Here is the input.
Amino acid sequence: MVYFTKTTYSRRNFTALSSTDSIQAALSHVSSVSLANCKFQELKEWEQKLENTLSQVRSSKEERALELQKKLDRQVEEQNELKLCVICLANEKRILCLPCRHLCLCETCAYRQEVTKCPICRLEIAEVLAVYS
Here is the structure.
């Protein structure tokens, strides 16, 4: 798992903010200056600055989208792991231990002779109940 530190996030945030600031500054300058009065070379320079800034914004957006996708993938994986039997970690939990009511076993593990106590609380299992969702 890859976690981003506060410093990394802050740097990324600062870059995004400075890109936003530079876009806003460029737009405010362009809107305050009559483009009709600008020289051709000045217009080319402004166009290049705006394209560079737009490229930075797109890059930041793509990085952020990738981070969010990775985070979502991790959360989905964690949720899937929560559904697995606590003994074999291979099959889905379907058996409720009574009297403690922990839903923690798959059918295969629940009916093994060695499993006499709830793996969560260690209370003696009096009965098991199949649960389907």
Summary: The first strand starts at residue 95 and ends at 98. The radius of gyration is 29 Å.
